[in-house]
Write a structure and sequence with these properties.
heterodimer; A: 973 residues; Ubiquitin-like (UB roll); seven-stranded mixed beta sheet; six-stranded mixed beta sheet; B: mainly beta; globular; Sarcosine_oxidase_asu (chain A); oxidoreductase (chain A)
Amino acid sequence: MTRLASGGRIDRAQTLRFSFDGTPYTGQAGDTLASALLANGVRLVGRSFKYHRPRGIWGLGAEEPNALVELREGARREPNTRATTAELFEGLAARSQNRWPSLRFDVQAVNGLFGPILSAGFYYKTFMWPASFWEKVYEPLIRRAAGLGRAPEEVDPDAYERMHAHCDVLVIGAGPAGLAAALAAARSGARVILADEDAEPGGRLLADRQEIGGLPAADWAAQVLAELAGFRDVTLLPRTTVFGAFDHGTYGAVQRVADHLATPPEGTPRQRGWTIVARRAVLAAGAVERPIAFAGNDRPGVMSAAAVRGYLNRYAVLPGRRAVVFTAGDDGWRSAADLLAAGAEVTVVEARDAVAPAIAEAARGARQILGARVAGTAGGLGLAGVTLTDGQRLPADLLAVAGGWNPLLNLSGHHGARPRWDDALLAFVPDAAPPGMAVAGAAAGRMTLAACLADGAAAGLRAAEEAGHPGQPLALPRADDEPAGLRALFHVPGRGKAFVDFQHDVTADDIALAAREGFRSVEHAKRYTTLGMATDQGRTSNVTGLAILAAATGRSIAETGTTLFRPPYTPVAIGALAGHQTGRDFRPTRRTPLHGWAAGQGASFVESGAWLRAEWYARPGERGWRDSVDREAQAVRRDVGFCDVSTLGKIEVVGPDAAALLDLVYANDIASLKPGRIRYGVMLREDGFVFDDGTCARFAPDRFLLTTTTANAARVLQHLEYAHQVLRPSLTVALLSVTDAWAQVSLAGPRARTVLGGLLPGVALGNEAFPHMSCAEVVLEGGMPARLYRLSFSGELAYEIGVPPDAAAALADRLLAAGATPYGTEALGVLRIEKGHVGGGELNGQTTAGDLGLGRMLSRRKDFIGRALAQRPALVDPARLVLVGLLAGAVLRGGSHLLAPGAPATTAHDLGHVTSACWSPHLGRMIGLALLAEGRSRIGTRIRVHDPLRGGDTEAEVVEPVFIDREGLRSRG
Amino acid sequence: MRILCPYCGDRDAAEFTTIGSAPPPRPAPDAPMAEWHAFLHLRDNPAGLHAELWQHSQGCRQWLRVMRDTRSHAVAGAEACRS
């Protein structure tokens, strides 16, 4: 065990059991998986991506490139999780990745011997030839070798949710700068959201031994958090990563609500995706320490020196007893001092020739080697020793590397801004940020404590003021600026693999090779070597890689530039973006007012857009759906039936200019329609194709009710609004969707008038008083107001009755009691095809009114949408596919292709296709509607119906597209 | 993205639907086919300020003419088409 006897922020009273690769261990509450593994002396935690080299833990948080593990098991298995951000919980099961058969013995480690072959651009160079090998040989090979963890194969059992929030000031990061910014803004009265990705806010204040105002820094952080929690308008979001800065102050964030628990408690989501709209934002994401590239710098036991401090001070873990600290600046000396205080034996290898006496004094007790560099490491699955460039060998089980700091300015670049290289800081600092965002603290290059506090406080005050909440400057407690001297040291050249990007196994030699092969542009070199393209997005590797590229191409780092930052900052689970909108909840399900009634009558339901509609009503003794549908359709033809048609779109058009607007959107004439009458109408798109069809009922000179197809209800309303507001803004007219306000039932069949008469005693319903295509407002027996329309979709004598939704079931009961047969959408479709009315298969967006036999409806006397472009030569070409009917002896299926009998089944001979087909119980045959080239002239001939997908091949007779009552006598009867 | 609706105020773009470029004025019924063709098909695709039509479909249902910079998404203004 390497747990220190005292200190740290772990709960020593609460011991948690966990396992890694099946071996049981214990840790403490407050540990991460990484700190608990280190406390148990586990250094080897994974294998690298390409060479399968043994890897350990490098960092302390989200920057971790090496220690990626699989968490949990079964459906909750989660690959590629950083051990450094996974909070320990009782029973946690973690596994190493990318190794076979075991972590300690991995067969593919042999890849390391082929290092010279697997260099930059390996895939591009190797898998080029022969082309035929790609699909069968190369791709499966690459897929088997690629990737780290295994995704779960079961459906994610957990719930996710979405939240939307607004604030004056969003503070990203709760380290010293973020806490000061949030406090300044909160005291100014601003609405503040403070988001921090860690379980415990505080950032480096929890990891370093520093004082603020005489208090340990962590205690000061706790004090500030307590004060912030007291503000009504301050929201603290721990375990929350702000992953993207989008347009106009919109930020995306993911809150890990229950990732630190074995399973989410009942009613709690696993994660919550946030959309935060902020007037101002302060980016205080801090900085991460960068590695130095030298041979063997990836061996387990080589760690970030600042991370070592974090493990010592926050988790009370001593990662090594015999430590070498390799540093290029003052910061590494603080790690040396902390290691000494924890009882380790320490050697400092300082790249600079001299350091300030006070710094050396603070690490008194350490062996100090100045002007030196680490050239390589020794050891098998873990570090055993370090070799310096002068050949000196130092035994060591921990090598803490301090190469300088990379500000985490990622979000400042999400709108495309590239950062600026600061030669004094030896870091990229933000040059610009998205509108409304300020960058503060270490993310802006303020690398010391007092500077971070002051910068954060000023940024928070300014942000609040800009958001309309001026306040007083914060009286900051006393804090010191620690020494932060640094020299540039990115690479120690030598023999052996010196890793730059640990996660993608990109070495210093790979970058130099890319430069020699002409990939001098930073964007090209990135893609060629895959530098910074792994899940850590180059957090630790980018700057080092750029420095090596700059040196290889004889340019400065500033001249070389850097790549763009893009969202997301860290990987985001799709579930957190989808929230509840998955499966059945992907969109709301719409049920008609008669849904419950239909279910009670044994209806099956079918999805129709967002709606569920009754498909058919099975009756005892029926052997299948066809029996039910045939019975229902025949009931309408011979007696009377009723069908729920509430899903048809209904739009009220009201106002003195209502008729003028409708004349613009309908291709046929509407102005001449008399009150109390209905007209079938066709709308075109402006490009001349048919858009939608429906009925238009005129209740009064200034009041119309339109019906639309179920599918186009929303689009037709939008189209009408467009025609009014954009094309004819001077018209005085109002539009209102009343689809949900009226339940509507179609009552059809020879006995329809008799049944209706029972509901409307004393009302004259004869052809004189209420002819075909009439409408009226009526009151049903019992006092229920209703709208009555005499129109027919089935070809029979038919009425549609509209009633308020809560009266629908009572109406249906009365119709049933009067002997009418309820029928579903399937019978409705059969009746429609028998009558030759067009539906979705024919109104497919590619047909003209002429194609559908509706060409004579187009008015010649007025302007209407689509009029001009419907005259284009291609739209009036006599060779176009036009609507015909088909009669067949064998099964017809929609989508089947039409060919001249004897013609080969090739595209060149394709004459059209079947758009709708059904068994007609009325005719006792298969019938269909089809779009057929020169169809009018083929009526009376035979055609081949070819269905290669489903293996159908038959012949059909081409007929007029009306199979019943061509004169329309039944509906007028 | 946010759009300042003249009726509803500052709203998220998810509440709106767009048809892209604001079309030119609709030609007279008897205009030559070339004019109709241009009206229907020809649109500018500027790198910069772009007039677009957005409908506040989850709000006041008004069609808006929105001036948006295609490079930065900055919205310079939005006015109702009927005004």
